[in-house]
């Protein structure tokens, strides 16, 4: 979980929700890229952030895209945020299986998902999961990645209930930047998506490059 490094936050506001992540791609302390995508669009009202092993992040993104497309074809409608969260949870859990050569060992995806979106009534929904899909619901914020401890500290200080979209953007941006400054395995810029009933606001952040 610490091989590539990451920092992801999802945070609620007043009829809006935001999700943010760093952009660093590294191998332990060696930085290889500054544009690695960790947040992916599911629908216009649902986004998912994947923290953990970079290869599993790419694999799961493709798998979730396939499952969402199949859901759209079968149900003839877009998948809801909460429904998608349970789909992710079951996908994580079904990988929790014994390795044939080593029956006592298990091989889950080394990824901790963070999901953010709006329900049909514009109620914010956020949750996070561990590597085998145990859902952690929250009404304020959820975090994941190697900067988890730092993120919890700044989010608890900055977050307030019923933030407007612009205030929510400022809050989550400051929380992300301050936490990344204290974690050597994440950082090098960030990206923020603010999901509102009328659309999605996406902005990139410049961070310290050291």
Strand fraction equals 35-45%
Quick one: CATH superfamily?
A: Aminohydrolase, N-terminal nucleophile (Ntn) domain
How many independent structural domains? 1
> Per CATH, which architecture?
4-Layer Sandwich
Question: What labels describe this entry?
Answer:
alpha+beta, globular, five-stranded antiparallel beta sheet, 36% strand, 210 residues, Glutamine Phosphoribosylpyrophosphate, subunit 1, domain 1, 4 helices
Tell me about this structure.
This protein is an alpha+beta fold. The protein has one domain: Glutamine Phosphoribosylpyrophosphate, subunit 1, domain 1, CATH 3.60.20.10. It contains four helices and 14 strands. The strands form four sheets. It has a five-stranded antiparallel sheet, with helices on one face. Strands 5-6-9-10-11 form a five-stranded antiparallel sheet, covered by helices on one side. A hairpin with a 2-residue loop joins β13 and β14 (199-205). α3 packs antiparallel against α4 (165-180). The longest helix has 22 residues, at 54-75. The protein is globular. It starts with 6 loop residues before the first strand and ends in a 5-residue tail after the last strand. The mean pLDDT is 90. It is found in: Cytoplasm; Nucleus. InterPro entries: Ntn_hydrolases_N, Proteasome_beta_3, Proteasome_bsu_CS, Proteasome_sua/b, Proteasome_suB-type. This is Proteasome subunit beta. Component of the proteasome complex.
């Amino acid at each position: 979980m610490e091989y590539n490094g990451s920092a992801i936050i999802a945070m609620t506001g007043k009829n809006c929700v935001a999700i943010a992540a760093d952009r660093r791609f590294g191998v332990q302390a060696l930085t290889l890229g500054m544009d690695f995508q960790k947040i992916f669009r599911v629908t216009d009202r649902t986004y998912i952030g994947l923290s953990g092993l970079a290869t599993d992040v790419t694999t799961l993104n493709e798998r979730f895209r396939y499952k969402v497309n199949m859901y759209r074809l079968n149900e003839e409608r877009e998948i809801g945020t909460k429904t998608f969260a349970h789909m992710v949870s079951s996908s994580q859990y079904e990988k929790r299986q014994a390795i044939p050569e080593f029956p006592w060992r298990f091989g889950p995806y080394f990824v901790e998902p963070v999901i953010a979106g709006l329900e049909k009534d514009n109620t914010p929904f956020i949750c996070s999961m561990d590597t085998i899909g145990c859902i952690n619901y929250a009404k304020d914020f959820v975090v994941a990645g190697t900067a988890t401890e730092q993120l919890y500290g700044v989010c608890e200080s900055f977050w307030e209930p019923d933030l407007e979209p612009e205030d929510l953007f400022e809050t989550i941006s400051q929380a992300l930047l301050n936490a990344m400054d204290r974690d050597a395995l994440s950082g090098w810029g960030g990206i923020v998506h603010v999901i509102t009933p009328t659309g999605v606001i996406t902005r990139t952040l410049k961070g310290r490059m050291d």
